[in-house]
């Protein structure tokens, strides 16, 4: 293991387990002087060189200028373990948006390193989501801690951040609202809700009305239970794609909605075989149809949905004219919610 990797691991372990205020991450990210002292202390702990080398490292570290409000320099980025090319790319990304380099750029880098990401991963994350340069390091840490409380442990958390770093730009309330929605409105277990956020992190930005309709369509119309939804990674697929692939099979006589006892006259394909495969595989192995047939069906479905939307808008306009009619929202259940047309 390289010296840089060893330092990062020890830094991560120390910051998470230390009770000393100097090494408390929130303090380090929030206070200029203490943060620099804590970071220097960790590097000194990780050093395997002699006293002269240690003093040299101490001098180098003081030149990193990892302080809010001060711009990152090429030397500072190189000392973090980035290559020359990576350093150029990072500084270019940091200086690209919102009128120049953010005052939070250094604390953002530190928070991502403490998470356990290596320089290559940090660069990819920030290229995918340069908005992270403008998030305070303390906010990033709070959001990471919140994801841990939701069940994303080490390994899973790093994969989620690497795959979908936008999740760290969202307020805690938004992420928690979606997690609670999955548990309360869609009846997923705590572990299932965690698995959904881990496998489909973009779900945290989905419209809740569309999210509920997708769940209810799959549950009532297709007869699929929660466990199979999680395994098939349902929430990676758009509602239109779910409806289109399901309806195509249904109209070809290859899928049937189960009755109240969960029984069908035919054997329905598994949800993962419908959704979690490429379109070519779906058509060849499940629908047994050509690309041309499916394209024509998609156009017909789009026209049909547009007509339904227009009809719904007319109905809503007529309902709004009736001032004497009142709705009792407390009596709505999941199935009645499903019967309502999806909201745009």
Automatic annotation (TrEMBL):
Belongs to the mTERF family. Signal peptide: none annotated. Keywords: Transit peptide. Residues 306-344 are annotated as: Disordered. Gene3D superfamilies: Transcription termination factor 3, mitochondrial. This is Mitochondrial transcription termination factor 4. The keyword Transport does not apply. The gene is MTERF4. Residues 306-333 have a biased composition (Acidic residues). Pfam families: mTERF.
